[in-house]
Amino acid sequence: MSPRGSEPPPASGDGTSRIDGTDSALASRATGTSWRDSVLRYYSLAKPGVLYGNVLTAAAGFLFASPGHIDWLLFLAVCAGTTLVIASACVVNNVLDRDIDSVMERTRKRATVTGHVQARNAVIYSVLLGLAGMSVLMAWTNWLVVAVGLGGYLAYVVLYGMLSKRMSVHGTLVGSISGAAPILGGYVGAAGELNAGAAIAFLMLFFWQMPAFYSISIYRHDEYAQAGVPVISVVRGIANTTEQILAYTVVFVAVSLLPQPFGYTGWSYTAVMGLLGLGWIALGIRGLKAERPARWSRLMFRYSLVMMTALSVMLAAGPRLP
Questions:
Q1: Is 46 helix (H, G, I), strand (E, B) or coil?
Q2: CATH architecture for segment(s) 36-193
Q3: Label partner for 116 (CA 20 to 30 A): which of 55, 139, 244, 272?
Q4: Residue 85 in contact with residue 74, Cβ under 8 Å?
Q5: What are the structural domain ranges in the chain?
């Protein structure tokens, strides 16, 4: 329901009140609320773009750790539980960031900002999602997946959302820990242990996030500055941020090539990721002399999405290719 009031229904001939199908539709349009609108608003609170990107890496981590037989029921449990836990974290983040979101252009229409979803209802929704997700992980996966899921949730909501994002230029570093948790959870869900493959998978996603989100901080620089969020481009300037983006891109590419030397994939994986990695580094170098940093940083971010998608596909397929 919309928080705004609506007119009372018309009285019927027998002295009772009713709303027939036509009146219900009119009332719905008048208040801007329908069942479909409500579902879409609650769905949007889970940040679908962020959600599905993270679940993709969780699936990739599981398949990366399953070079032979794949336990599909366990795979579904890991993905379902992870989806719900991440959705819970995203919803509560909307509640925490209402003051920031109301200032920034890209977020000021979120349902928790406009009032279409009250903060109390969003918190209840988040708790239900979180409990459902953790229940699935506890019932059908292993304790490592549960620990990674809980740790990633706390890192995102508390360490990042409540603290570092608002207080430190290093907020992105802290947020990258939670961002790398899904692939680690997927990996240990299949492997049942922490090993070199788990460390490589975690580090790849950790370092991927730095150039990706530092790029956002450049083309959203003015919005972050207005909202008072101490992202690197605001605190240290565009030039320094560009240099950091290139440095982290190089580190990511180096780490992304480790699976083959450690025996987890074949040369096909290395060839694909190596070529794409060189392209990302070349684009990063262009940024050092970019006359329009905002335009360049958007290209850099879009390329990061290509890299994440390719990485997820190649991690899943790499152990099965030459």
A1: coil
A2: Orthogonal Bundle (1.10)
A3: 55
A4: no
A5: 36-193, 195-322
